[in-house]
Amino acid sequence: MDTLEHDDIVHLDPEQPFWERFYMVAPLIVVGTQNEDNSYNLAPKHMAAPMGWDNYFGFVCTPRHKTYRNAVRTGVFTVSYPKPSQVVLASLSASPRVGATEGPRRKPALNQLPMRAAAEVDGVFLEDGYLFLECEMERHVDDLGENSLLIGAVKAVHVEKDALRVSDKENEAVIRDNPLLAYLPPDRYATIDETNAFPFPAGFEK
Ligand SMILES: Cc1cc2nc3c(=O)[nH]c(=O)nc-3n(C[C@H](O)[C@H](O)[C@H](O)COP(=O)(O)O)c2cc1C
Question: Is pTM, for the whole model, over 0.90?
Answer without folding.
Answer: yes
